[in-house]
Amino acid sequence: METLSGVLETEVLVVGAGPAGATAAALLSTYGIKNVLLNKHAGVSNSPRAHITNQRGVEVLRDLGIEEELLKHATPQHLMGEHVYATSLAGPELGRLRTWYTHPHFKAEHDLASPCSVCDMPQHLMEPILVNTAASRGSVVRFNTELLTFAQDADGVTARVKDRVTGAEYDIRCQYMIGADGGNSIVAERLGLPLEGEMGLGGSINVVFEADLTRFVEHRPGDMYWLVQPGVGHDGNGIGVLRMVRPWTRWIGVWGYDVSAGKPSLTEQDGIRIAHQLIGDDSVPVKVDSMSTWAVNHMYATDNMKGRVMCVGDAVHRHSPMNGLGSNTSMQDSYNLCWKLMLVLRGQAAPTLLDTYRDERVPVGRQIVDRATRSNGLMPPIFAALELPTAPDEQTMSKAITALAEPTPAGTERRRVFDAALQGTLMCFNTHGVETNQHYRSAAVVPDGTPEPEAPRDEEVYYFATTRPGRHLPHVWLTRDQHRVSTFDLCGRGEFTLLIEINGAAWREAADRVAERFGVPIRVRSIGRGCDYEDSYGDYRTMSEVEEDGAVLVRPDHMVAWRAASMPADPAAVLCSVFEQILGQADRAEQDGWAGQAVAAAPPEPLGASG
Fold first, then answer.
1. Are 473 and 554 in contact (CB under 8 A)?
2. CB 3.0 to 4.6 Å from 115: which of 159, 300, 421, 486, for a disulfide?
3. Three-class SS of residue 367?
4. Cis geometry, peptide bond prior to residue 248 (ω within 30 degrees of 0)
5. What pLDDT does residue 135 have?
6. 12-15 and 176-179 as β-strands: parallel, antiparallel, unpaired?
7. pLDDT per residue as tens digits for the range 228-279
8. Three-state secondary structure call for residue 524
9. Residue 444: what are its φ and ψ, rounded to 5°?
10. Residues 310 and 121 sit within 8 Å (Cβ to Cβ)
C-alpha cells in the first residue's frame, strides 16, 4: 500500500463490506493481494437480514480457515428444521415441514454432499467475522467512506471517495475494482450493467424484537414459524413469519404491506402489536429493537463486469429471501473471482481469465433469482386450498380453518388439497441441487471429450456428484494417520490440486514441470492404499470416475478444471495444454516448445465406458 501525490494505491478496491465484499477482501488478503475494503456506513450490518448459510457458503469459510468461528455463533441444523404452520405461535397448528434437510432422507443426501452443514448465521454476526478476517490478514478497511465516482483506463481504475466523517475527498488508484455495494449498487449503475426483471413486487416489514418464546418453541425447534392470519404477508399471501435470530429470545416478525400505498410509518407500538399478533399471546413481554421495510425483487444482471470492474452479490442478483440463496451466492461470486484476480495480478494468467467470471456466474445469478421467485409463488396455493379471498378478514379466516377439520366429504377434500399445498412449500427450503450443482462452462474449464451425462434425479432437488469438468469436486471421507479427512480439505487455499491414485506417480513429475513453466503452484495429492491419503471406505475409487492411473485437476475454488481417464503417453505435455487454456498462456508454452506437442501427441483422453 503506497500513497503517491495524495492518491492511495492498492491492487484491488472492494466497494461494500457486506457478505460479498467482506468475503472478497478476506480471500484477497489470504492470497497475498493488497486490497482496500470500503464501507460507507460506520460499522458492519446491525440487522440480521440474511441468515441461512448453506453448505457451499460454509465451505467458503472452511477454506478461509474460519469455519469454527462461524459455528461458535451459528444456530446448528438440528435446531432449524421444524417449520410449523399455525394460526399463531400459541394457536392451533395446521401442519409441519421438516426443512433444511432435517428429514432423514434429505439429511443423508445433505451429509453425503459436503463435510459442512447448513446453519443459521444472522448477517450482523457473520459480517464481523469476515471483516475481521480480512483486516487481520492485511486488508485496509475504511468505514464511513463512500464511493463517489470512478473512471477506468488501460492500466487501472481511479475511484473518488469521500470520508463521511470529515467530508474530505481523495482518490484511490487500483488495478481492479469489485462492486459489492448491494441491491442499490452505484457501481453496477455507473457501469451500465444490463439488468432484467422487476423490483418492488411486494413489500414486507421486519420487526426485530426480544421476547422469551422458549415455552412456545423449544419442543418444536425451527428457525421460521409460518402464521396464517388476516392482514399479514405480502402479495395477499396472508402469512406472517416469526424468524428466530437467537434461540429462543431474539426474533424477527415479518408483516406485509401494500407497496402501492407507499412505505408505512411505524411506531414502537406498531412493532409490539405485530409481535403480539404473531405470537398470539399479548401477555408476553416484548422489546422492539428495530423496524425496517424491504421489497420482494426479481432482477439479475446479464453481464456482471466491464473492463477492470466486476460486480458481485446483490449488485447483480436481487430476489426474494426464499431458499436462503442470497448471501451464499454472493460469497460464492467472490470465491469464483478472487483466485482469478490473484493469478492475473501475479502475472501468472492472462487478463482473459477474468472473463470466465462472467461466463460462470451470470447463469448462476439468473438461476437463483428465478428459483426464489418460483418458491415465492408456492405460498398462495395454501390460501386457495382454504378457499380464502385475497385479503380475508378474521371471521372468514376462522371459518376456513374450522372447515378444514370437518368430518365430512367436503372436509376430506379440503384436507387433501391443503396438505398437498403445504407439502408443496418444501421447495421454498429444500433445493439442495440449486445450492450444490453449479455447472461452469468457460475457458477455465477444459472438457474431457465425453458426452454430457443426464442427471439421474431432479437437479434442483438433489445433488449430482460427479468429477465432470465444470462441476464441484465431490466430497468423500478419506483417512490419514487413522483420522478422517474430506476430499474438500485436500484442495483450495488459493492453489490448483491434482488428485491422483496409486498408479499415477508419473503425474507428480508432470505437475512439477508444468508448475515450473507457468509459475503456478500445483499441489499433488495421491489417494489409495499406501498413498498420501487412504481410500479406507472405497468411496473415492467409486466417485473419481477415472482409472487408477488417471487424474482429476481441481481449481482453487474446488471446481473440477479437467480430468484424465487414464495416463497419457506424455502427461506433462497434456497437463501443459490444460494450463495453457485455463491461464491463457499459450505463448509461454510455445516458448518452451510444448504447445503443439501437447495437442498433437497426447490430447486429453476421453473417459471409457466405466467412467
1. yes
2. 486
3. helix
4. yes
5. 98
6. parallel
7. 987 665 454 578 999 999 999 999 999 888 777 788 899 999 999 999 999 9
8. strand
9. -90, 10
10. no
**What pLDDT score does 263 carry?**
86
Q: How many CB atoms lie within 10 A of CB 205?
A: 23
Above 80 in pLDDT, residue 6?
Answer: no
The span from the CA of 306 to the CA of 568, in Å, is 40
Quote the cell numbers at residue 531: 498413498
For cell 505437475, the residue is 511
Calculate the CA dihedral of residues 451, 457, 461, 463 and round it to 10 degrees: -60
Burial class (CB in 10 A: 0-12, 13-18, 19+), 452: exposed
Q: How far is 555 from 563, CA to CA, in rounded Å? A: 11
SS (H, E, C) 586-598: HHHHHHCCCHHHH
- Mean residue pLDDT across the chain: 93
Q: Is the pLDDT of residue 498 over 70?
A: yes
Q: For residue 197, is it left (φ>0), alpha (ψ between -120 and 50) or beta?
A: left
- Residue 3, Cβ density class (10 Å: 0-12 exposed, 13-18 middle, ≥19 buried): exposed
Q: Which residues are 562's β-sheet partners?
A: 553
End-to-end Cα distance, the chain: 49
Contact 128, 73 (CB under 8 A): no
Measuring CA to CA, which residue among 345, 359, 350 is closest to residue 304?
359
pTM score of the predicted model: 0.94
Amino acid sitting at position 9: E
Contact at 8 Å (CB) between 564 and 576? no
Q: Is the preceding omega at residue 507 within 30 degrees of 0, hence cis?
A: no
Q: How far apart are CA 74 and CA 66, in angstroms?
A: 13
Residues linked to residue 207 through DSSP beta bridges, in sequence order: 253, 291
Give the C-alpha separation, 510 to 579, whole Å. 12
CA dist., res. 260 & res. 293, Å (int): 14
Q: What number of other Cβ atoms are within 10 A of residue 90's Cβ?
A: 15
SS3 70: helix
Bridge partners of residue 206, in order along the sequence: 254, 292
Inform me whether the pLDDT recorded for 61 exceeds 50. Answer: yes
DSSP state of 424: H
